[in-house]
Write a structure and sequence with these properties.
Blueprint (H helix, E strand, L loop, with lengths): L2 H10 L14 H8 L3 H8 L7 H13 L14 E8 L4 H15 L4 E8 L6 H7 L7 E4 L5 H12 L3 E5 L10 E3 L3 H16 L5 E7 L5 H17 L3 E8 L4 H14 L4 E4 L4 H10 L7 E5 L3 H8 L5 E4 L2 H17 L11 E3 L8
Parallel strand pairs: 1-2, 1-3, 3-4, 4-5, 6-7, 6-8, 8-9, 9-10
Antiparallel strand pairs: 10-11
Helix pairs in contact: 1-4, 2-3, 2-4, 5-13, 6-7, 8-9, 10-11
Length: 357
Amino acid sequence: MSCAEEILRVLLDFDDSAIGTRMRTTITEIALKSGVSAATVDRVLNGRSGVRERTREIVLTVARELGYFGPADIAPTRRVRLDFVLPAGTNSFMRNLRGQLIDEAARHEDVQLRIHDVEDWSAGRIERRLAELHDQTDAVGVVAPDRPEIREELNALAREGVRIATLVSDVPAVDKIGYVGVDNRAAGRLAGLLLGRFLGPGKGGNIALFVGSRAYRGHEEREMGFRSILADEFADLRITAYAEVGDDREQAHEEMRRILQAGQVDGVYNIGSGNQGIARALREAHLAQQVVFIGHDLTDATRLLLLDRTMDAVIDQNHRVQAREAVRLLTAAVRGTTEREYPPRLQVVFRENIPAS
């Protein structure tokens, strides 16, 4: 038996009934009976990291014995089980988001993280994976298409008390605690503004528009925003080619090759992933620095494409912030607390302002 456990055993046997009725137990009293510092007790009671699991259990046991927790209080008696369901594949942004979720969860001793990478949403695998989480989780964060069967499974989890949050692309008709992501319609309008200004007002031009999948509401909203600003402010720009590539770089490469063979292209807007495939086709056609190319998400690949001037601008949504906010939002909801939100913001990255990391 450890020293802390021995202190706990002795002190819990102590009869303090002679002291009489007293005010609510203080942190100092809990610290004394737990054999730890008041600072450690404060960290435990507020669910902060930096405390060993065994010490946390001792402090919480003593706090309960002393009546610290009133009927409305929620004691963090166990780790919060967080599950994130993400699309698998070659999407660099999703790979980075996955890594940031792991790093963020590691900073919280009270969080147990599981990530589920799901291939091919159209085969019903997302809803089947969600169905497997019943009675197995406290909260779910999901990047998923806005489909009836997926909405139904998310709502079924919510009815059981599981906290739900959507990331990157929203699914509106779900009983969730929030959406962690940027305004995708604004992102599409921003891309149209950049493309129009790069090509020059009144000069016209043929635009190739690439979409990952319109099943994702975020991609659909970006396309809406892009078409909207072209109609409003750059009517001389024409979308002469359209390709839905499933966020696959090889398919994006083949579609870009086909489009270039069919006629002149002055600008490219890629709503989703697959930037590397588009860039490869432009290089093969010796058009890498002649066609204006706007895309999304700063990754190792798009960083290099900006540096060699194949891409002209990248609209970033900061995967680090999204991971941090998703973990904080879901953990707070499970604990029954609230925290101030710091949602990700749109940032335009050019060759000249690429962040250091």
